[in-house]
Amino acid sequence: MARAVRELLIGIGEDPDREGLRKTPDRVARAYREAVEGLGREPSEVLTTVFDEGHDEMVLVRDIDFSSLCEHHLVVFSGRAHVAYIPNNRGQITGLSKLARLVDLYARRPQVQERLTSQIADALVDVLEPRGVMVVVEAEHLCMSMRGVRKPGATTVTSAVRGQFLSTATRSEGMSLILGSRR
Ligand SMILES: Nc1nc2c(ncn2[C@@H]2O[C@H](COP(=O)(O)OP(=O)(O)OP(=O)(O)O)[C@@H](O)[C@H]2O)c(=O)[nH]1
Ligand SMILES: [Zn+2]
């Protein structure tokens, strides 16, 4: 990666050996390694703690900050994820922090927002076997604000809905709880 960044610097007409840039290839390599540290990790690694709490109503963690890498331009898209599920009949729930860890696991890799959203939902379905899942992701894409079409402030909203959340009443209950987070 560091070699590639050195080439990139040459490509943009810079001198990679000048003082300010000498350490840049290594720094950028470390930064990218951190940005993709979710690659190769499995949701079962983070959704480890399951409690038999007998709670069978909706659980929602909203406003989970994340940043990810747009796989088309390798620049950041970032925003907030809202993750809701309805536990299964055994009332099995997971640790709240695990939902945020799951968001990071899928955000920390080259992504498109739609896939990020559905991967979070599908992982919860697979591991927790809940009666329903709803994931809403709101993000701003730097590839749309700093370059290209240059529309800073444009927000992309995606959702993935599974199981009981497909019913109109449950979906709108979930949505209104999520929208309640707007400041
Ligand atoms: N659906 C979707 N599109 C994305 C996402 N991130 C970036 N894109 C889009 O991917 C597209 C790539 O389009 P291309 O025409 O191949 O690339 P480009 O010439 O750089 O496109 P512009 O951004 O329009 O300048 C752009 O329209 C981006 O806005 C994402 O998460 N989901
Ligand atoms: Zn992009």
From TrEMBL:
Signal peptide interval: none
Every GTP cyclohydrolase I domain range: 2-177
Enzyme class (EC, first level): hydrolase
GO molecular-function terms, A-Z: GTP binding; GTP cyclohydrolase I activity; zinc ion binding
Residues reported to bind Zn(2+): 70, 73, 143
GO cellular component: cytoplasm
Pathway membership, UniProt: Cofactor biosynthesis; 7,8-dihydroneopterin triphosphate biosynthesis; 7,8-dihydroneopterin triphosphate from GTP: step 1/1
Reaction it catalyzes: GTP + H2O = 7,8-dihydroneopterin 3'-triphosphate + formate + H(+)
EC number: 3.5.4.16
One family name in Pfam for this protein: GTP_cyclohydroI
KW Transit peptide (keyword) present: no
One Gene Ontology biological process: tetrahydrobiopterin biosynthetic process
Keywords: GTP-binding, Hydrolase, Metal-binding, Nucleotide-binding, One-carbon metabolism, Zinc
Similarity comment text for this entry: Belongs to the GTP cyclohydrolase I family.
Assembly: Homopolymer.
NCBIfam families linked to this entry: folE, PRK09347.1-2, PRK09347.1-3
The protein's name in its UniProt record: GTP cyclohydrolase 1
Protein's organism: Frankia alni (strain DSM 45986 / CECT 9034 / ACN14a)
Gene that this polypeptide is encoded by: folE2
